[in-house]
Amino acid sequence: xxxxxxxxxxxxxxxxxxxxxxxxxxxxxxxxxxxxxxxxxxxxxxxxxxxxxxxxxxxxxxxxxxxxxxxxxxxxxxxxxxxxxxxxxxxxxxxxxxxxxxxxxxxxxxxxxxxxxxxxxxxxxxxxxxxxxxxxxxxxxxxxxxxxxxxxxxxxxxxxxxxxxxxxxxxxxxxxxxxxxxxxxxxxxxxxxxxxxxxxxxxxxxxxxxxxxxxxxxxxxxxxxxxxxxxxxxxxxxxxxxxxxxxxxxxxxxxxxxxxxxxxxxxxxxxxxxxxxxxxxxxxxxxxxxxxxxxxxxxxxxxxxxxxxxxxxxxxxxxxxxxxxxxxxxxxxxxxxxxxxxxxxxxxxxxxxxxxxxxxxxxxxxxxxxxxxxxxxxxxxxxxxxxxxxxxxxxxxxxxxxxxxxxxxxxxxxxxxxxxxxxxxxxxxxxxxxxxxxxxxxxxxxxxxxxxxxxxxxxxxxxxxxxxxxxxxxxxxxxxxxxxxxxxxxxxxxxxxxxxxxxxxxxxxxxxxxxxxxxxxxxxxxxxxxxxxxxxxxxxxxxxxxxxxxxxxxxxxxxxxxxxxxxxxxxxxxxxxxxxxxxxxxxxxxxxxxxxxxxxxxxxxxxxxxxxxxxxxxxx
Length: 620
Known about the structure:
- This protein is mostly beta strands.
- Helices cover 4% and strands 39% of the residues.
- The chain is built from two helices and 51 strands.
- Strands 24-27-31-34-37-40-45-41-38-35-32-28 form a twelve-stranded parallel β-barrel. A twelve-stranded parallel β-sheet has the order 16-19-22-25-29-33-36-39-44-46-48-50.
- It is globular and about 70 Å long.
């Protein structure tokens, strides 16, 4: 749960009136109504934080605090959901900007902590290569410690797949995050302050949030394990290239049936470490870090990969208790600069920290029985995880994902069927482009018990689609079988698509390649809270065989139901309140779309629906 200390200073506010700001703080609301529409009613304030949702999402080891709820001497920005603005990419759509020496954000701990991760934004450099600066950390008002911050992993421009040229339009992906350990465990009630000591290197520092936790001591080397430092001479300082030495240790582990241990240290890895029939484990993701990139060939960078499927794939792999923190500052889709990749069957990724790579895990099959669990995936230039092409019986569970540059958790059945996969009990926040969770094609898929918050653009919270190349019924890859999405909570999801120039729904279906039909799709026991545009959306080809059971819609920016393609859906116990438009349904396909009503529905049905030539402005 996101704590809200009672002592707050708000000397300057941008984006809303001071009176309205205080009202929002008192109410605990995360956003304000900034527009109006005929007949619009104000939505009840939803859960302000994805951590307020009980029993769903990932169980995370940290307590999150938003900067706007802390004590600060700076400028509150937001709330705003307009793509391309700093507050639109902030958690809760608000943050605090510090632009003078001495300004600060001060958090008061509600639980003990010895470590912090904080999310921030610096302005880009004029040439687009990023700027480096420092901000002070003060613990309980003590001596200041300088923490390095940078903008080089943020700020992209132009059209997809984007570039680092500020002369192009469309700036986005503003935020990054960094972590630090305090050197002591602070009790609850302690203060942790981020304070500006100089504006010489950066004219401003925008603070979004901080995550506080107690990091356990390092995990000792397991008995009988191979130590990459002691046994193979890998450099734990990061000064020397350790790629070949770690690969040699991993190969020995495979040959001898022994685990391979990464002790405390930062290891320079400039290419893929290939794993097969081996366990690679560290002292913990705060202690054992793989990082690096080839200084000449920029297509080579740190990554732990299974063999590719055409090489026979890998199996029996365990990766656990370490971090991969890369140095990817651009998006080049053909470059294999992901943290984890290749094909790994009968394998587990457990308690890893993946940051600053292209994708956290891009898994290309055929492969079977693969699991990512108990992990963190942060600040990617593209996807968080993608199960791509023939991935079966595989899962991502109890994993925290934030600030991906594309789909956060995706399945893409390109040319080879994806079957019986699941994304469950994950918390997914702020994908900068596209969707929180999506299956492009796929048979017998489960997307359940997740918490999804804050869509930025060109996507929604939950997406089921026959889209993207190679997804057709002709090769068995289209949406089919049983698609189950139960017990999900969606908070401020869906947003404007800058190509289409209209809103994308929080839950949306697209049959671009061919209609979605023949599958049994169930959306059940789900909350759609404060959606930025429509709650439910159909587009790009017919969608049929969809059932909504026990769904709560609490606040929409536009409609409850936005119909832009034919199809049919069944609704049971679907209750909507706070729908912005007087007519809650937009439908210009007429009888081409069939609504089948069961029992217990209220607040979202209209006959006839709206069909206008102008999309309404959203009400937030």
